[in-house]
Amino acid sequence: DTEVTQTPKHLVMGMTNKKSLKCEQHMGHRAMYWYKQKAKKPPELMFVYSYEKLSINESVPSRFSPECPNSSLLNLHLHALQPEDSALYLCASSQEIGLASYEQYFGPGTRLTVT
Amino acid sequence: KNQVEQSPQSLIILEGKNCTLQCNYTVSPFSNLRWYKQDTGRGPVSLTIMTFSENTKSNGRYTATLDADTKQSSLHITASQLSDSASYICVVSDMTTDSWGKLQFGAGTQVVVTP
User: Which DSSP string corresponds to A99-113?
Assistant: First the structure.
């Protein structure tokens, strides 16, 4: 099974709401990633977790708060977002970070709209 | 400046025809190069991954080539099908950031296959 699942598929939230995006994989991967993708643009890396510890934070605003409760789950908590945060949020996983042979498997994404 | 440049930005081809997409990169030192296919609103799906020593790799009707000396790659689609309509993204890793799982994404080539 090479599947990464994400919920919800679509999310509409107001600027004062608090919501969470969820990502799950059962491939035994120890590295998990959050990306943000605007229309017609490539994905932008936000966070990387390695062995459930935050490894990279690409200077993401604090209104985005990642959490990795265990090796299979990755959450992204959202609070006080802005309309410009509307985008497709992609989760990915790989066996580990580093080494050329480790493929990143992407989930289908959550389409987020901030009103 | 983006270290991964793709061309053309978009193209339209007739079903059954072949096409070739180009990727030029300046990423150094080079680790590996990947081609992903991304359907609209979905996560990217890996087509091929090549390291420095590989100069061609196939996945069904998709064939990728790599010239590490000129820092160029191409993706050739043979006998195109309607389902090939998607964005094709070239992704390059370098030997330094690869250890942190950070990939350099091209902007993608949008391919539309028409009946």
Answer: STT-PPEE---EEEE
Dig out the tokens for B53 from the structure.
């020593």
Report the distance separating Cα A78 and Cα B74, nearest Å. 39
Residue A75 is predicted with a pLDDT of 98
- Contact call for residues A11 and A5 (beta carbons, < 8 A): no
Say how many C-beta atoms besides its own lie within 10 A of residue B10's C-beta: 12
Residue A93 backbone phi and psi in degrees, to 5: -140, 155
For residues B34 and A52, what is the distance between their CA atoms, to the nearest angstrom?
26
- pLDDT bracket for residue A31 (50, 70, 90): very high
Q: Give the three-class secondary structure for B82.
A: helix
Q: How many CB contacts within 8 angstroms connect chain A with chain B?
A: 66
Looking at the DSSP bridge assignments, the partners of residue A77 are: A20, A65
Most A CBs within 10 Å, among B30, B42, B88, B94, to test the A interface: B42
3-class SS at B62?
A: strand
Mean pLDDT, chain B, rounded, equals 92
* B19: its two tokens: 């096409």
Rounded to a whole number of angstroms, the distance from the CA of B71 to the nearest CA of chain A is 17
CA distance A21 to A25: 14
**How far lies A64's CA from each of A35, A59, A79, B107, in Å?**
12, 10, 7, 24
Chain B residue with CA closest to A35: the answer is B43
